[in-house]
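User: I'll paste a sequence; please echo it back and then give the predicted structure.

Assistant: Echoing your sequence first, then the prediction.
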Amino acid sequence: MQGRIMDFLPSIFKFNDGTDADTKEKFLLRREEMLDILAREEYGVMPERKKASGKLIKRITKCACGYAVEDVVEITIPTPNGDFTFPIHHLYPVKEGKHPTFVYLHFRGDIYSNYCPAEEIVERGFSVAIFNYLDIATDDGDFNNGISTYFPRTGKGDEWGKIGMWAYAASAVADYLLTCPQTDESLLGVIGHSRLGKTALWCGANDERFKFVVSNDSGCGGAAYEQHRSPDRETNEKICNVFPYWFCENYKKHVNDYENRCFDQHFLLASICPRYLLVGSASEDLWADPIAEEMSCVASSPAWDLFNKKGYIPNSSDGSIHYHIRPGIHFLGRPDWNTYMDFIMKKKNEKDFKNETFDF
């Protein structure tokens, strides 16, 4: 299976000049090339980011059935045109200590929703920092609001789209969390669903502080490689017609030009190597193309071999890539969260993360 996929996808082991990236050291250089290609041709180039800070606005004790403390925090990102601020809700266990922590890109601003089983997350010993993606930039073609106004548009084809802006904010949340005594920095993850699953992948690929990168039903422009063409799937032609503002303008050049494209989504997944990658699908979510999501895991898996790590192992959580597909529709629910938390706790129990090295 792996051989057939690798035969027609652009190679993660070939530099732009055609030479081989066949060692760990060379692959890390190739990784930078792949991220540069994805920035220029798909998501847009993110501006240089200065370290963000957080200010506690309100603390609520004994929430989430009494399991948690909730901190409402204002995150401030310094920009060349002033400070941009947005709120997060940081929910962490009442029990003192460092906890595995998610940065969760959310479609809503509240912490209690069908997409976020807050009590269950905290009861299992995790903390979660939630922010509403619309507090960063609106989900439309308007680039005159939110963080967009702090980085005026220049009209270049590689200017960042909204996915890049949301990812930029998720890294700013990590800046704050890594100053918190409740955060286990060795177990920091980023998670998102659908368009925010695409965002979590782009954020995690660029930000090595995230040791776990979780994509739920991200599909086209996310985990699903695009040269696979299922009849009911979203394609980059469709996504560029409806949501062009998620990406940079250059992405439109690649509509239906699969044979000549110098990249595909396995570049994105491989750029997370040698850390942990979790990709979730739903059996009835044909639009997100579960087959292509799993095959992208297969295509990116050989990168982990260079680091003496197992990549993707079908129907197993023993590797560094975990793919799961559940019955049902396009949604992020308890079965997904519990699968991801099970995987993280398994890895935590397998080794001492304090001494884990990811060879960057």
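The chain has a mean pLDDT of 94. Residues 2-51+90-353 form a domain with the Rossmann fold fold (CATH 3.40.50.1820).
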